[in-house]
Specification:
79% helix, single chain, 10 helices
Length: 232
């Protein structure tokens, strides 16, 4: 692939893979907790939390990116604290692209894990509770193994979504080659210049292959984990 793609194109692909991997890994623990709260929790504000989680699916991505810029920019409420106290700058950095990708992919991750949790028979957890097991132990030994296919599927779908994120990313971190120019941003840039169609077409093919591979991997891993759990 390195011979087929130019250094600039390969740089965009590599950055997208890096951003997507960081976005997925960083958001997965929170995704499990939020999915668990939405699936089993009974607390005031549950529907509000559900709405906030799914808001990025409804809002235009540019709006999400603008809200990120207002919040995590150098002069934003959170961004100013991160910059002055910890020296962390997210706006116009690849880490900011990872944050934007994580937020846009988070609803898909949570939904997949939530459906897996809701499919678990509560009687199994109740049986463990009657034997004196604590809630954390029940989750670790009963619930977690059964929802593992959903976690894997959610993580892979989130990774694929992060790979294709464009609107929020370009609004929050711009389109800087070698720093914040991800695969979709590079495709957009090539389409704006004369003679860039061939480069854009190559990157489109790469994007399609990665997305299809992620979907197939999600199905295969989910079934493999389910078979292993069923045979255990």
């Amino acid at each position: 692939m390195t011979d087929w793609l130019s250094p600039e194109e390969w740089q965009a692909v590599a950055l997208s893979l890096r951003v997507s991997a960081v976005a997925t890994a960083a958001s997965l623990p929170l995704g499990i907790l939020v999915a668990l709260a939405l699936a089993r929790g009974r607390f005031p504000g549950r529907q509000v939390l559900n709405g906030i989680v799914h808001l990025p699916l409804i809002l235009p991505p540019v709006v999400t990116g603008y809200l990120l810029l207002l919040t995590f920019g150098r002069k934003g409420l959170v961004g100013q604290v991160l910059d002055q106290w910890f020296g962390i700058v997210l706006a116009f950095r690849w880490t900011g692209a990872a944050l934007a990708a994580a937020i846009m992919a988070f609803p898909l991750m949570v939904r997949a894990i939530r459906l897996a949790i809701e499919a678990v028979d509560p009687k199994l957890e109740q049986a463990a509770a009657t034997l004196g097991a604590s809630r954390p132990w029940i989750f670790a030994t009963v619930t977690l193994p059964m929802i593992l296919p959903g976690i894997v599927a959610g993580a892979i779908l989130a990774f694929a979504k992060a790979m294709g994120e464009f609107g929020a990313t370009i609004t929050f971190v711009s389109n800087i080659p070698g720093q914040t120019q991800t695969l979709p941003s590079a495709i957009y840039s090539f389409l704006q210049v004369p003679g860039g169609d061939a480069q854009a077409a190559r990157l489109v093919m790469v994007a399609v292959v990665i997305a299809m591979a992620a979907l197939l991997l999600s199905e295969w891993v989910g079934r493999a984990v389910a078979r292993r759990i069923g045979g255990a």
